[in-house]
Amino acid sequence: MIALVAVFAPLVAPADPNAVSILEQYQSPSSAHLLGTDVSGRDLLSRLIVGSRTALIGPLIVVLISTPIGVGAAILAAWRGGWLDTAISRTIDVTFAFPGLLLAIVAAAVFTPSLLVAALALSISYTAYTARVVRSEAIRQRSQPYVEALWVQGQSTRAICWQHLLPNLMPLILAQLTLSFAYATVDIATISFLGLGVQPPTADWGSMVAEGQVGILEGYPQESLYAGACLVTLILAVSVVGDYLTDRAERRR
Amino acid sequence: MSDPVVTVSELVKTFPGVGTGRRKAETRAVSDVSFTVQRGGALAIVGESGSGKTTVARCLAALEAPTSGSIEVCGERWTGKQGSTKARRRRARKIQLVFQDPYQSLDPRQQVGAALDEALRVHRVRDGSKRDDEVLDLLERVGLSGEVADFYPRVLSGGQRQRVAIARALAAEPEVMVFDESVAALDVSIQAQILNLVSDLRESAGLTTIFISHDLAVVRQVSESMIVMRRGVVVEEGSTIDVLNSPADPYTKMLIASIPRIGWDPGDVLRAASADDERR
Amino acid sequence: MSAPLLEIEDICLAVPDGSQMRPLLRGVSLSIGVGEVLSVVGESGSGKSVTARAVLGMLPQGAEATGSVRFAGSSILDAPRDELRSYRAHKVAMIFQDPRAYINPVRRIGDYLTEAATSIGGMRRGAARSRAMELLEAALIDDPKWVMDRYPHELSGGMLQRVMIAGALMGEPELLLADEPTTAVDVSTQAEVMAILGRLREEFDLAMMFITHDLELAAATGDRTAVMYAGRIVEQQPSTLLHERPLHPYTVGLLGSRPSLEAAPDRLLTIDGRPIAAADAPAGCAFEPRCAFAEESCRAQDPRLHPLAGGEVACLRAEQLLERGMDSRV
Question: How high is the ipTM of this complex?
Answer without folding.
Answer: 0.80
